[in-house]
């Protein structure tokens, strides 16, 4: 490698060194490269191989459409949780008995946690191979867990 006369710190690579860097020939000092003949072994081709080439996903893997559907329903259930939290936080009930107050408190906790429990339960209890059943379960959860106090308050 030679240096430029104008600058002592700028190395100039000559054309021969470029060619040497780009070549991979038998004169190379690299011992990891071995040139060996390739054996031509014929591979038997059967009809069973064609059946496996379809666009089937392995077990436990969802398609990208189902991942988007999960994300959309996850966002819906998250919004439901926030709506239940806002709806329940606005109500200040007054009960005569401590049992009624305890039941109200448990109900509010379950109302707030219900959408998250439904979403996680659907994912854990239904296998990925039953994607239609998962979508139906998500839709049923959206209908059942709709935060009516929030909806009615927003409409009035």
From TrEMBL:
<feature type="transmembrane region" description="Helical">
    <location>
        <begin position="67"/>
        <end position="86"/>
    </location>
</feature>
<keyword id="KW-1133">Transmembrane helix</keyword>
<feature type="transmembrane region" description="Helical">
    <location>
        <begin position="135"/>
        <end position="155"/>
    </location>
</feature>
<feature type="transmembrane region" description="Helical">
    <location>
        <begin position="106"/>
        <end position="126"/>
    </location>
</feature>
<protein>
    <recommendedName>
        <fullName>DNA polymerase III subunit gamma/tau</fullName>
    </recommendedName>
</protein>
<keyword id="KW-0812">Transmembrane</keyword>
<feature type="compositionally biased region" description="Basic and acidic residues">
    <location>
        <begin position="1"/>
        <end position="10"/>
    </location>
</feature>
<feature type="compositionally biased region" description="Acidic residues">
    <location>
        <begin position="47"/>
        <end position="58"/>
    </location>
</feature>
<feature type="compositionally biased region" description="Polar residues">
    <location>
        <begin position="25"/>
        <end position="34"/>
    </location>
</feature>
<feature type="region of interest" description="Disordered">
    <location>
        <begin position="1"/>
        <end position="59"/>
    </location>
</feature>
<keyword id="KW-0472">Membrane</keyword>
């Amino acid at each position: 490698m030679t240096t430029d006369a104008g600058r002592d710190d700028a190395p100039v690579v000559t054309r021969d060194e470029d060619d040497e860097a780009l070549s991979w020939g038998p004169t190379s000092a690299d011992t990891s490269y071995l040139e060996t003949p390739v054996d031509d072994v014929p591979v038997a081709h059967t009809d069973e191989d064609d059946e496996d080439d379809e666009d089937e996903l392995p077990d436990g893997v969802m398609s990208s459409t189902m991942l988007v559907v999960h994300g959309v329903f996850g966002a819906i259930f998250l919004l439901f949780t926030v709506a239940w939290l806002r709806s329940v936080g606005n109500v200040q009930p007054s009960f005569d008995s401590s049992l009624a107050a305890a039941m109200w408190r448990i109900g509010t906790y379950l109302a707030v946690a219900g959408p998250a429990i439904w979403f996680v339960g659907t994912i854990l209890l239904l296998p990925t191979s039953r994607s239609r059943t998962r979508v139906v379960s998500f839709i049923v959860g959206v209908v059942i867990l709709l935060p009516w106090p929030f909806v009615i308050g927003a409409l009035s």
